[in-house]
Specification:
With 186 residues, the chain is of the alpha+beta class. It contains five helices and seven strands, in the order αββββααβββαα. It has a seven-stranded antiparallel β-sheet with strand order 1-2-3-4-5-6-7. Pfam families: Chalcone_3.
Length: 186
Amino acid sequence: MKLSILLIAAGLAAFPAHASERRLNQAGFPPLIQSGETTLIKRQADVLTYFFVDVFSAALFTPEEVPLTELNLTADPFRLDIYYHRDIDREDALDLAWKALRRQHSAEKLEQLAPSIEELHAQISDIREGDRYSLTLRTSPQLTLQRNGQVIFTSDDPELATAYARLWLGEGGISRKLRQKILSAR
């Protein structure tokens, strides 16, 4: 009896790891990508799960020489790829983004950033299962947003680039748990 309970518990404990591995395989993140003249390697990847539902997989790509624990969101080039496992209404996605931005910035700073953020948000449509968004920061343009491999937004505004990078990878962003896993030097 005790052995059966232990085997069931071990199987349940292994299930989330297996499910995450399956989702990451489904996302198909490559080991490296070219961003302009810079080669970025996949450093970390993880799955965001909300109430037992896999929402998306995310992978962070940086230059090999940049330690993850020292990644500077305002100076180091990087790319964050997000592969969605669920449909998400545009309004729900934008509402979540604004909530995180409000946690991270003063009302005055948000008022200053709002026109640029609204311009970026105007390019986001309903998210469908299998969609892939890529957020790339480099020196020129500062910020590029792609959907399914197509560039949908670019900006040379370094403050917008920093704000949107922090939305995903900064304190108080979209997901603390995902941020910790993506930026850990496992």
